[in-house]
Amino acid sequence: MNKRSALAFAATGAALSLGLAACGGTSSSPTTPAGGGASGSGAPAAADAFNAGLEKVFNPSDKKGGILKMAISEDWDSVDPGDTYYGLSWNLIRIYGRSLVTYTPAPGAEGRKLAPDLAESLGEASDGGKTWTYKLRTGLKFEDGTPITSKDVKYAVLRSMDKETFVNGPTYFNDWLDLPKDFKSVYKTPDVNTDSAIETPDDQTIVFHLKKAYGGFDNFAALPGTIPIPKDKDTGVKYREHVIASGPYKFDKVEAGKRYTLVRNENWDPATDPIRKALPDGYEISLGVNADDLDNRILSGDLHIDLAGTGVQPAALGRVLSDPALKARSDNPTATRTWYTSIIGDVPPLDNVDCRKAIIYGADRVGLQNAYGGEFAGGDIATGLMPPTLGGWKKLDLYPTGTGDAAKAKEALTACGKPDGFETIMAYRADRPKEKATAESLQQSLAKVGIKLTLKGYPTGDYFSLYAGKPDFVKKNGIGLATNGWGADWNDGFGFMSQIVDSRTIRESGGNYNLSIKDKEIDAKIDEIFTKTEVAERDALWGEIDQRVMEQAYVLPGVWSKSVLVRPQGATNVFVTGAFDMYDYLNLGVQ
Amino acid sequence: MVTYIIRRLIGALLMLIIVSMVTFSIFFVVPRLAGATSEDFASRYMGRAASSEMISVTAEKLGFNDPIPVQYGRWISGVFVGSEFDTGAAIEQCPAPCFGYSFIKRQPVWPELVDRIPVTMSLAAGASVIWLLGGVSVGVLSALRRGSIFDRAAMSVALAGVSLPIFFTGIVSLVVFSYGLGITAPGGSFTPLQENPAQWAYNLLLPWITLAFLYAASYARLTRAGMLETMGEDYIRTARAKGMKESSVVVKHGLRAALTPILTIFGLDLGLLLGGAVLTESTFSLKGIGDYAVQAIVSNDLPKIMGVTMVAALFVVVASLIVDLLYAVVDPRVRLG
Amino acid sequence: MTAPLDAPGKPAEVPPEAVLAGSDAKAIQGRSLGQIAWMHLKRDKVALIGAGVVVLLILTAIFAPLIVSVFGHPPNEFHQEMIDTSTMTPKGGTGIGGEFLFGVEPVNGRDLFSRVIYGARISLLIAVLATFLSVVIGTVMGVVAGYFGGWVDTLISRAMDVFLAFPLLVFAMALVGVLGQFEQSLGVSGDTLRIGLLIFVIGFFNWPYIGRIIRGQTLSLREREFVDAARSLGARGPYILFREILPNLIAPILVYATLLIPTNVLFEAALSFLGVGIQAPTATWGGMLSQAVKFYNVPHFMFFPGMAIFITVLAFNLFGDGLRDALDPKSSR
């Protein structure tokens, strides 16, 4: 799912203000000379080398000024904090909005750790993890100078739950907060008392009440939904035309679908913000730029950042990887995202586990890797559904990962009672070249073992709501295989797996992301997970679920996604954050 | 004359209404025949978190359960008097002309289209000047020097020109001139005319030339054929016999007669182009009407598809209306027929 | 005037009178249409070359499996050993050689030669059948409108105006999407369904171009002496229609059909380019071009399908031009 951000490791409960003090010290004092002990810890500028921005800050600096230029070839869902589900957006939004908690601006795995933002510290759990309390910092102000209170945070969270108005964002608050039955939305039922879900005993304190205990609530608090919104400035869907800034930058010009410019927000006080450096004087974001031109401009140094953060286009990929000088300017991070093909057991003969296994045995796994873009732009061949960056991951070795094992596939087919193979239909998203290539590759390799695939492309926009994600349609049309992919909303088993393995999330009306995993044993394990308080125990159970998924051959994993990013020329503090697996947009500066 | 104009205007309006009915039924009736339900229509507007209950409510709210004529009536009345849409947070106004309200993007279609018209218009304007001047002059020269090397070469190039798809020539020229030599702007470049005229022209130069090449080729062939025919007419011989200068004969008599049918076609071509140069825009990543149409279709955003189809049809109908009216002015016989 | 290709189509180019002259020739010389056409065509080397290429293309399409079995590999077969797994481009740039005459595709290493050859099948099949559909509808409508006149004529003419006002390409794209949902009720699927759909959409929207011309021809034929003569001899409507008028329409129909085919080749390519044509993995020229755009650093990928479209369209245009000239003594070169 492209909208899925690849969010970070939930260091649940771990207090971590470590190293932040150092950051805060320099970013809040504009007089500090460049290079003075920032998050690079005074290290010398990193040299141009492949993956130089992966584990270290490349070209660290505290120099202020300049305009940071970003561009994107398409548009993303929204700049409204209550209406966005793109990883790039969750990354970018932090320059103009401050959530209760956010991700530490640091390279690699360190970047997955949560740090308090609006809040003074991470959440304080009580009532066995059902109640979470946050204290806001003092001196917080919106761009118009009015103080930010806990009521603005509460309003923003409740507002983001109105899925009729804001269709894009995540639904975690809807699913977990203990709201009264008669509450519909902040617009329709503004007078309903919602204290059973969120309390604001004073202007600095906000208390969340959950339906059931959840130890990782700080991950919810890091969602853009907790970015405060002043009620009197809220204009519903039109709020995106002027989002009120709480971060160091505010919108200057908003031309939807074309251009955003952001300038400094004079009412942002660095003293209240230990993690932001706020180096550039402004941001220039162009939308709808030709994708190839965008790559070329980054390579030539005319542009700093491809906002999408998913890597270069095929044409530029060839250039970057074959030119050593350009390759030295690139980073190759692994995302918490798996591209896979669902093997749908509703459709005979795939209701038989051996027939499903035959598909995994017969598939050319290298061919699938190539279809997704090869070893650099595609990713590593996946042996399970769960990506290796997640806690509880263990290497599964149930199936060969070569170019297809015809003998084993035949064996499985015989066991399934279809020694001569069978026919089925494979769905893919027609306007995604990589998924088309995946379908073509599978068709070729499975034909060799007698499994005949008919390929059917469906429009991306309706793929889950009307086609592959609608059980009725899948059965009626005999769709046995469907390509898709999933990225974690944050980096733990829950953030990755919950939406795609729990059979009880499947709705007959469509819009499902779990296309094929309908297993009572897995459902029972998920229930068990919520009874466990220890992170390690929960992680281990997620790992077991992953194993069960592969044993039962519910999915054919493709790759654990990687991307080839080009480091900007003339930008400072460049590094890949483990929270989003793209460059961190929070503290970039201009040389 | 006035009655003629009125008659043509009414005709044009009727035509647009029929076009809208046909379009409407294709997008809203045909899928139903294929088994789509009101909920299927509604679920497109719902985002990922919709429950089936919410989808039914939305289907009702958006009126997908109403009889088709009622739905059509609501749409068409929106065009003339505007309409309102409930976004959940508030009732959004969609003022006339309301060509629909995109529930996926959550905004009225018309302002989005208006926003894109300058791109398509700039593309069409520049290209049409080039192809008209280029095509006609090559055609005239070819006709005058019929059989010469120039004629043969020009007509061969013209024939090649009409045989090339723009998505091939466009990409090849981008690769060669923009990405290779770096002398023209890369794909997706557009600067509004009022912002910087020089930049505007520079950015559009390559799309203009590529698009104009196709049209120029066909106009050159047309002009040549027309000129050959008129230059053989009796009145040309008469003009020559009167001792008129050859240049005046060509320009005053020959070209004028040959140009009339070309201007008709020019009017219609321009109308069609303004309705969206789909392939040119998608090849050069220009955000015009044609690109909008493609995006609308890819995302299956029905109100957008309806809106853009109607606006495109509007351009064609208006263009042919103007051509007809000009004809009526030039040639009084038309009014009788 | 054919909107689809952002460029003017051929049918509008030829003034109807030019073609009508063909029937004059018949009346005067008393030779069969074929004889006259052949007499002129024989002398027109360019048109003959065009015709030769057209014949070659048709043979290629028919014998594609044979050609590919001798000179290439199955069109959908992967050859990943030819691909550099980091850049996803063919090893050594193109892969062109004795084994792969046109090189291989990036990513999966499919044989470009085989795919271009197979692409001819789809392209010609759709273009020819869609043209046939347009000609049938256009002729019937045109003759009916022209022959009966009155309100029938008004109705059909208005219908043609409506069709001409549609933004064709946009409409065709949307229609293919909408009609694709009928898969189950129609009981066909895959390529067969898509080919049928494309033929229908392309053919159905192009008939007014033919219809208008035929209507004009019929109108003027109706008033001709030989029709009057037949009528005064007591001939009835159907006789006049089928024995007097239709035979005289064959020349223009032939010419316009030939000139409509290349337009339809471009139309199909455009739809495939925009992603609504035939689905993967079947090879189409337009579909290959749309993939090649992303791999513009491997130019051979766009060159071969692009040239295939160009040569096909050019050949039909050359032949059609020649045919028109052959049937119209006035417009000699």
The span between the termini of chain C is: 24 Å
Structural class of chain A: alpha+beta
- Helical region count of chain C? 13
Helical residue percent band of chain C: over 70%
Helix content of chain A: 25-40%
- Spatial order of the strands in the main sheet of chain A? 14-18-13-17-15-16
How much β-strand is present in the residues of chain C? Answer: under 5%
Largest interface: B-C, 66 and 58 residues
- Average pLDDT of chain A, rounded to a whole number, is 88
Q: Between the first and last Cα atoms of chain A, what is the distance in angstroms?
A: 35 Å
Mean pLDDT metric of chain C: 83
Q: Please give the largest β-sheet of chain A.
A: 6 strands, mixed
Structural class of chain C: mainly alpha
Strand segment tally of chain A:
23
Short account of what is shown:
The complex is a heterotrimer of chains A (about 600), B (about 325) and C (about 325). Chain B is mainly alpha-helical and about 325 residues long.
Explain how this protein is built.
The complex is a heterotrimer of chains A (591), B (337) and C (333). Chain A is of the alpha+beta class. Chain A is 26% helix and 18% strand. Chain B is mostly helical and 337 residues long. In chain B, β3 (101-102) and β4 form a beta hairpin. Chain B starts with a helix and ends with a helix. In chain B, 49% of the residues are buried. With 333 residues, chain C is an all-alpha fold. Chain C is built from 13 helices and no strands. Residues 7-29 of chain C have low confidence and may be disordered. At the B-C interface, α1, α2, α7, α8 and α9 of B face α6, α7, α11, α12 and α13 of C.
